């Protein structure tokens, strides 16, 4: 059965590349995935990605590069929203946006079975429980420091006595936990990491470059370092064990990158500094 499903999914990917139909939203590029070549293969994909009859997409509101939400409320927007809705359209199911304040809450909700797909950075800790696609966007992990800080380069930060604020469970927290040799991480929940950095006069704040730069423009007492300490590879994922769904997601992401869909979504959401990830190696 696995061989049959695998062959069917390969045929789906080939059909995606070969056929182009007008999408529901003419502002979005991409093709309409044809129905699965076998009813069994289609049923397996739907069982994996929409077991409740709808596609429940975990949305991380803590990453403004990928999701934007107006202060006055309303529906979130951004590249992850566009990808979730396009996937739902192709599967022929309604999309439910399950919103979370940060990546750590998305990951923790996995055990409750509250979502079917998620948009998270690829990380070994997460990959043990989530089947990831290749990345669709790459963003930078950067440091913000006091304006008069003697720390000038990324390499300067990993020293004895240096204290770094980070959002608990974020991709950069997990990365720095594995890679720092001398500096000490000080963790807080989500946006509270910035408050911790300022209140306790810490030496650096780790985060995604774009929101750090935006904050630094409003506060002359801080600056964002040049260079990055990590490349954050943002991908789609589904809980492990959903093999047909994972294969479908991998093909979906590759087509979304190749067709220009991801680049257009980033442009619409005013994220020019985010980089579309290269095609996955075959």
Provide a quick synopsis of the model.
With 282 residues, the chain is of the alpha/beta class. Helix content is 37%, strand content 22%. Strands 1, 2, 3, 4, 5, 6, 7, 8, 9, 10 and 11 form an eleven-stranded mixed beta sheet that branches.
Description:
- With 282 residues, the chain is of the alpha/beta class.
- The chain folds into 2 domains: 179 residues, D-Maltodextrin-Binding Protein, domain 2; 92 residues, D-Maltodextrin-Binding Protein, domain 2.
- Helices cover 37% and strands 22% of the residues.
- Strands 1, 2, 3, 4, 5, 6, 7, 8, 9, 10 and 11 form an 11-stranded mixed beta sheet that branches.
- 42% of the residues are buried.
Rounded to an integer in angstroms, the radius of gyration calculated over CA atoms is 20 Å
Query: Overall mean pLDDT score?
Result: 88
Q: Report the top-level CATH class of the largest domain.
A: Alpha Beta
Strand content range: 15-25%
The tally of strands reads 11
CATH superfamily grouping of the largest domain: Periplasmic binding protein-like II
Globally, the shape reads elongated
User: How far is it from the N-terminal to the C-terminal residue, by CA?
Assistant: 23 Å
Number of domains: 2
Low-confidence stretches: 1-36
CATH-scheme architecture of the largest domain: 3-Layer(aba) Sandwich
Please tally the helical runs, counting DSSP H or I stretches of 4 or more residues.
11
């Amino acid at each position: 059965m696995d061989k049959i499903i695998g062959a069917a999914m390969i045929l789906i990917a080939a059909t995606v590349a070969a056929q182009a139909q007008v999408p529901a939203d003419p502002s979005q590029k991409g093709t309409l995935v044809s129905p699965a070549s076998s009813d069994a293969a289609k049923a397996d994909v739907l069982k994996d990605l929409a077991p409740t009859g709808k596609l429940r997409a975990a949305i991380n509101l803590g990453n403004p590069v990928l999701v934007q939400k107006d202060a006055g409320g309303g529906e979130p927007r951004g590249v992850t929203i566009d990808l979730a809705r396009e996937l739902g359209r192709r599967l022929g199911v309604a999309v439910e946006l399950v919103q979370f304040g940060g990546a750590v809450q998305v990951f923790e909700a996995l055990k409750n079975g509250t979502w079917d797909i998620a948009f998270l950075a690829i990380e070994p800790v997460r990959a043990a429980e989530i089947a990831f696609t290749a990345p669709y966007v790459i963003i930078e992990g950067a440091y913000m420091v006091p304006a008069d800080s003697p720390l000038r380069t990324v390499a300067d930060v990993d020293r004895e006595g240096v204290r770094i604020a980070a959002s608990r469970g974020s991709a950069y927290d997990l990365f720095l936990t594995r890679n720092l040799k001398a500096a000490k991480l000080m963790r807080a929940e989500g946006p509270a990491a910035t408050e911790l950095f300022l209140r306790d006069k810490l030496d650096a704040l780790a985060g995604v470059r774009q929101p750090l730069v935006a904050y630094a423009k409003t506060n002359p007492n801080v600056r964002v370092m040049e260079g990055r300490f990590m490349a954050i590879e943002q991908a789609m994922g589904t809980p492990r064990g959903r093999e047909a769904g994972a294969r479908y997601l991998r093909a979906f992401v590759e087509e979304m990158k190749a067709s220009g869909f991801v680049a257009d979504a980033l442009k619409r959401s005013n994220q020019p500094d985010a980089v579309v990830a290269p095609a996955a190696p075959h």
